[in-house]
Amino acid sequence: MTYQSTARAFLLSSAAILAISTPSPAQTPMSRVDPEVQGETTGPDGAIAQSSVAGAIQEAMVDDTLRAMIGPDAEGLMTAAEKAYAIRVFDSIWDRGGVRDLVRALEEAPQSGVYIAPGLLERVRDIGALDRLSDTERARADLTLTAAFLLYADARVNGVTDPGDIADAPVIEDTASENLSLWLAEAGEGLFDYSELDPDHDEFSSLRELRGHYRARAETDSWEAIDAPGELIEVGDEDAIVEDLRTRLAAEDYDVPDAPVREVETQSGATREEAHTALFTEELSEVLKAFQRDRGLKVDGIVGPSTLAELNATPGDLVDRIDANLERWRWAPERFAPTHVRVNIPAYKARAYEDGEVAVEMKAIVGRSSRQTPMLTDSLEYLVANPRWYVPESILERDKLDDIRGSGDYIESHDYFVLDRDTGERADPDTVSWDTQDVAEEYRLVQEPGEENALGELKFMFPNNQAIYLHGTPAQHLFDDAHRSFSSGCIRLAEPLRMSDWLASQDERLDAQNVRDVVAGQELERLELENPVPIHTVYFTATVDETGDARFHPDIYGWDAATLQAMRDNPVSFADQTGQTPITDSTQEARIDGRNDEVPTDA
Same structural domain for residues 15 and 78? Predict the structure, then answer.
């Protein structure tokens, strides 16, 4: 038998990722054994028997068999595979237990909101008993299993979609690459816990459980749409759909009161009592308000088009919404700091977290659909008390020029002044030709601090290339609206002083009373934070609150639909099997029921 040498230097470089405690010998996965003693069954001291499975694996790797399945651009996945095989001196990774667990994980992938192409799952299932394969077939099978695991693990950790293709979102780092080699080796031996692939956020776990709840209901509940009434239904109205409304709210686990009882006259002239199911009562309206609150609707207790649309959302519809949000959790930072600020855009809420718990919560106003608030991760660095507002060129052009042209005293009456962009000097607004096409490029509009100032009394700065920040607003009445997408992208806070009080409680340099005194003095002042506070603007339309109740919020930017479409268009698949309809819960049930239950055996 002849042998060929392996990349010894590569073995040593891979050892650094394996410096972890070793389980008992019976439980020790190959990935956690010293690289110097691995692969001895296939050749002496780091050499590979060319006629062995290991030799066939190495030859297939050289021939780019694995790359053809993973794809030409997946360098991180290829590197992980190369490390895992080199550490084992190209010995096979997969045994019977590992194959069984991988098949189960792929079958259950939709439960985590990951869609699998049927071709990938079928190819893995079709591998059969490993001990009946030739060396070449066994090598090909091992690489197929490796490719399937890596593609699935990457999708479950990082998502299958590129957030930049769907939303105004930051580029996310591949958080799986440094762990993939270790995960691959443990998966091959049947010692891997696939839940390690999920985002390490309690919110993700809660949302995944909620998905299971609605998926079960989709399989068992009959769900017929409630007919649209002729007009709005308010307390005291009678309509045939009220009975359907009562049934639907009960199905959604709300505590629905019994229908009121009324006396009716019989044909004989006697009277009897019967349930007045068509009457929309005050008690039922209160239950409807709770439903509206949980679905991000205007809370008025009236049955209108928006409320009816949410009442008619099926469990399957809600599963789809949850899947889009599970995907977005994979875009989120790997961890949130215990102390941070988080704005959930479609919930119109800003929260401050302290030691992982909500310390402050307030209403927020976010960007309208044409001027979307982006998803960002940054750090709050300083506050500006009594800020000036330097009106962006785009807002001057789209929003302010018509006001200026329509009113000769608009600038003065709203506490603005004008700057010449070339000289930086103040310009007399009466000398500016506001009707010229390029006026917004030549002059800048600035609003002085004060009651009229659009930024309110405070702005909270986390410098970024999109000029997004938090600030107050004089238009407090806008917070009374349920749907608060009114801004040009920045985030308006209902209670900016409460936010500054909380920031001061977390920072030695900032003093809460001093901030309030500065604001009261109406002088512009910059207030630095000694320790920047992480801030995240996120987009979650499905959440589970602290009491365990489901909350759904309007998809104000259409990112749910775009995310779902991208997930369906790009299921986890081998690079040579693209364009397949993904496996979802319903399609998976049929496939599982009809599959061959034979479990591959060890070689």
Answer: yes
Q: Are residues 537 and 583 in the same domain?
A: no
For residue 54, the Cα-to-chain-centroid distance in whole angstroms is 41
* Catalytic site residue from 340, 414, 490, 536: 490
Tallying the residues shown for the chain, one arrives at: 603
169 — pLDDT class (breaks 50, 70, 90) = low
Nearest to 207 by CA among 112, 295, 291: 112
Q: Domain containing 466 — which CATH number?
A: 2.40.440.10
- Position 308 in a domain: yes
35 pLDDT exceeds 50? no
pTM for this prediction: 0.85
Whether 245 and 381 map to the same domain: the answer is no
Range of the domain at 506: 334-388+449-557
In Å, the largest CA–CA distance within the chain is 107
Q: Residues with Cβ < 8 Å from 208, sequence gap 6 or more? A: 111, 112, 113, 198, 326
Does the residue 230 lie in any domain?
Answer: no
Domain match, 438 and 461 both: no
Whole-angstrom distance, CA of residue 120 vs CA of residue 129? 18
Exactly one of 471, 477, 483, 536 is catalytic; which is it? 471
Same domain, 511 and 584: no
Catalytic residue flag (residue 340): no
Summarised one tens digit per residue, pLDDT across range 216-239 is: 999 887 788 999 887 899 999 999
Helix pair 118-125, 135-158: axis angle to 10 deg: 140
Judgement on whether residues 549 and 400 belong to the same structural domain of the protein: no
446 DSSP assignment? E
Residue 275 φ then ψ, to 5° = -70, 130
- The yes-or-no answer on residue 471 being catalytic is yes
Q: What's the distance, Cα to Cα, between the start and end of the chain in Å?
A: 20
